[in-house]
From TrEMBL:
This is Uncharacterized protein LOC117571192. It comes from Drosophila albomicans (Fruit fly). The gene is LOC117571192. Residues 258-269, 301-312 have a biased composition (Acidic residues). Residues 124-203, 390-467 form the DUF4806 domain. Residues 1-13 have a biased composition (Basic residues).
């Protein structure tokens, strides 16, 4: 069977001759094409030919004319000038608005300053503060009721920069601070009793988040801190007055002996210095004995109490004899010496007390013995006014204790002085029997533990007893410890006494 296609038929003839004929025809066609670059010499060209007629200038150079370019440049400049003018106008408008705001602000500030100047014309006279008495406090409360805003502004100024706690003394003087507290407890003047003053102080301290409870806490803290500062200053002042003369002052006898003046310096008020100054001036002006003269130390060592007639100074003889006797005499027990120093002498015998007792002792013994002798509350003997109060002591039962508590609440200062007189010989631990009878002390304790009668429940008695012993080193915790130990030791002594 014969297949389809030309694969097995006759092969196709090559068309070389046809290709040659087609290439010849193409060559003939290209020869008939007119080349535009070929010049036809038969065409004549005139010499006068205008370029504009052939092609415009813009098409020749490919850009705008100079006139159009200049106009476009001017249009661009006018647009930029317009934009700049718009920006400048906007900025000027903003500046005008800001200037108007500042002018309005200055007007308000000036109005406020004028108001402050008007208020400053009614400034409170400085003589009104600090308040010095209860009468002035009542008058000030009435004045604040009539013009509270004026005093509120004044308090704001007075309490700057450290607040009410540091500047309470600008409102009340030291005496009023001691006599006052916030609530009027313990028979004190209460700040809450003067409603107008209390309200003005609260408004002057008021700020965001500052409640009345915070104000009450601030005022209480201010009174307590100021009282402690006042007590400390008083104590230092009285201790300075009771201290002996400084060491530098003792150098003046040398100058006195150099001039030969043996009289006392009446301008100096220390009697101890007067006597010793005269004695030292005599010793300085008198010529010293020979080297082998009997000294007080050798005299006391040999026990010879007779005077050395070869020594001509009578002052030296008497002091030598007295010192030899004191050296040879055995000293009493230490506790007896403390008891003796605790009891102050009469003021008329101050010279002998200060010179004779401390001739051989150190200056610290003199300070310790005279530490309680203060000008304000020193009483050499119990006055008749205090003797009337002693009829209630020692307290024998609970009913008498309650009666004494009422008496102390009405007149605490006198009882504080009485308690100081009782405690001059020692602390409460040693003098518990001066306050309470044995039968009552056995049934008492400080805190009332063990179904005992609590001494702390009698507030006025408790405070008066504490104030009679209060000092810089003696705190309230020390006082409570002393009272507890006093009751315990007294009970123990009673039990031992019953066994004997």
């Amino acid at each position: 069977m014969r297949g389809r296609g030309r694969g097995r038929g006759r092969p196709r003839k090559s068309n070389v001759a046809g290709q040659e004929r087609s290439s010849d025809n193409n060559h003939l066609a290209f020869d008939n094409y007119e080349d535009p670059l070929d010049f036809d010499e038969s065409v004549k060209v005139k010499n006068e030919v205008f370029v504009d007629e052939i092609m415009p200038e813009c098409e020749v150079f490919g850009m705008m004319s100079s006139q159009d370019l200049l106009e476009d440049q001017r249009r661009t400049q006018r647009g930029m000038i317009a934009i700049d003018e718009r920006n400048i106008n906007e900025r000027l408008g903003s500046l005008e608005r800001k200037v108007d705001f500042l002018i309005n602000l200055h007007v308000k500030i000036l109005a406020r300053v004028d108001k402050l100047c008007e208020d400053a014309k009614e400034v409170v006279e400085p003589t009104e503060f600090p308040i010095k008495s209860k009468e002035e406090l009542e008058i000030m409360d009435e004045k604040i009721a009539n013009a509270p805003d004026k005093y509120i502004e004044l308090f704001k100024v007075l309490f700057k920069p450290d607040g009410f706690e540091k500047h309470i003394c600008r409102i009340f003087n030291d005496e009023m601070v001691i006599e006052m507290n916030f609530d009027g407890a313990c028979s004190k003047l209460g700040l809450t009793n003067y409603a107008n003053l209390n309200s003005a102080l609260f408004e002057s301290l008021k700020r965001e988040g500052f409640t009345y409870g915070d104000y009450r806490k601030t005022v209480r803290s201010a009174f307590n801190k100021t009282k402690n500062r006042i007590y400390k200053s008083w104590t230092r002042r009285r201790q300075a007055k009771s201290a002996p003369a400084p060491a530098k002052r003792a150098m003046t006898p040398k100058e006195d002996s150099a001039t030969g003046d043996e009289e006392e310096d009446e301008s100096y008020e220390n009697p101890e210095y007067k006597t010793t100054s005269k004695k030292r001036s005599i010793e300085k002006s008198t010529p010293k004995p020979a080297k082998r003269a009997m000294t007080p130390k050798e005299d006391s060592a040999t026990g010879d109490e007779e005077e050395d007639e070869s020594y001509e100074n009578p002052e030296y003889k008497t002091t030598s004899k007295k010192r030899s006797i004191e050296k040879s005499t055995p000293k009493p027990a230490k506790r007896v010496m403390v008891e003796k120093e605790k009891s102050p002498p009469a003021l008329d015998d101050a010279d002998e007390f200060e010179v004779d007792r401390f001739e051989d002792s150190s200056p610290m013994d003199f300070v310790k013995a005279n530490l309680d002798i203060l000008e304000d509350d020193y009483e050499p003997e119990m006055s008749a006014e205090l003797e009337e109060l002693t009829v209630d002591f020692p307290i024998k039962d609970k009913s008498q204790l309650e009666a004494v508590e009422k008496k102390i609440s009405s007149n605490r200062e006198k009882y504080v002085r009485l308690f100081k007189f009782y405690l001059k010989s020692g602390s409460f631990e040693e003098n518990c029997a001066s306050f309470f009878d044995g039968s009552l002390a056995v049934d008492m304790s400080y805190d009332g533990l063990g179904s005992k009668t609590a001494f702390s429940n009698y507030v006025h008695f408790n405070i008066a007893l504490f104030e009679s012993q209060k000092s810089d080193e003696f705190t309230y915790e020390d006082y409570k410890k002393s009272v507890r130990n006093g009751f315990l030791k007294y009970k123990k002594w009673r039990r031992n006494d019953k066994k004997k």
